[in-house]
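Reopening this one. Same input as before:
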Amino acid sequence: MFFDRVDSGDQAILVHINFVDASEHEDPDEFLELVLSAGVTPLLTINGSRKSIHPKSFVGSGKIEEIKLAVESLDANVVLFNHILSPRQEWMIEEELGCRVIDRTGLILDIFAQRARTHEGKLQVELAQLHHQSTRASGGWTHLDRQKGGVGMRGTGETQLETDRRLIDKRISWVKAKVLKVAAKRAQSRKTRVKSAVKTVSICGYTNAGKSTLFNYLTRSSVYAADQLFATLDPTIRRLDIPGLGKVMLADTVGFIRNLPHKLIDAFKSTLQETAEADLLLHIVDCSSPDMRENIVEVEKVLSEIDAHEIPCILIFNKIDNLPDRQPSVEYNAEGKPIKIWLSAKNGLGCDLVDKAILDALNDELYEKDIILSPKYGQLRAMLFDQNAVVAENYNENGDCVLSVKLQILDFKIMLSRASIDPSEFIEQIKEIYEK
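Same output, byte for byte:
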């Protein structure tokens, strides 16, 4: 319904205003990247400064005149604001300029609409668009907002505004139901992973920090990666084998950005649950960005919103190829847990450090012993190999298998249970893990 982009043209005037209030600050360079990512041709950027937002026109009557002249002289057909406009402001500016006006939120939603590929992604984007559109419906139909009373002045029934709102609400309910159904399937997949004791590691970070590039390197995948904002929208999960730890699931998720629309966060809740319920977060940071610290703060804000701020996290400072004096390295805290990694995913420089860091971060209690398995324990042997927990394999004179294993104690206990092994038959070899 609202998923298709509105054919409003690609020739744009950009508007960026510096406000005294720091809370209204937006990055003009990032805005230009957003515009280019949306496939729009920027004709001119109009800058300005104000102490506060004008309640009606946002920028004031003088600046509106300047924008209008630019639209007419350059034959632009859309004006993009690097700010969040109220529905009323957006409608009034459109009336003054005679062309389409899109704010920062609308631009981000448009980019998401272009990038969504999976059924789930498209549903989530449409839900966010519908919520955004529902607030905009009131501005453009104020002349139909209420039927007048009196003889000859009564309306025929439902107004156009009421019809629009009813149709939007109906569509929202339908899309929500579909999203919940897809979310249930995703939750079931997570439940299965938890039951099988498979750890989940989620890659998160500011948009265009290099998340998908690192994901591709680690998993030998070919997820779309590009030097543009929101190159990845649909979440991807791949298996990653960590020596000494076994199988983990690595999730690549959508990037964050300043003032990410709350409705977009709400719509993508099921996708973001991959991050919220992960055992470990890899927070990818573009260490060559001048806004590196601010970007870290913005990501931490979103992590807090989805209740993922207490999950163990490793900061991965990517793109060290842009910093000539920086070499690949890992930093550890006082407990011996990795907290920072410096690498270049593009060149693969230092990426080999990530596997070891994941192992060190998730290895709380390791079982590292030699165990003897008679032929009847073939299922357990297969499970140990499947988890990459076998360091070496030999055979004794009786033909029994002698395995040198290294894996987490919790994983070993679950394996024994799944293999239906009676602990009393096996207790002498592994009794120490039952005493923990």
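So the earlier flakiness isn't reproducible anymore. For the record, Residues 186-362 form a domain with the Rossmann fold fold (CATH 3.40.50.300).
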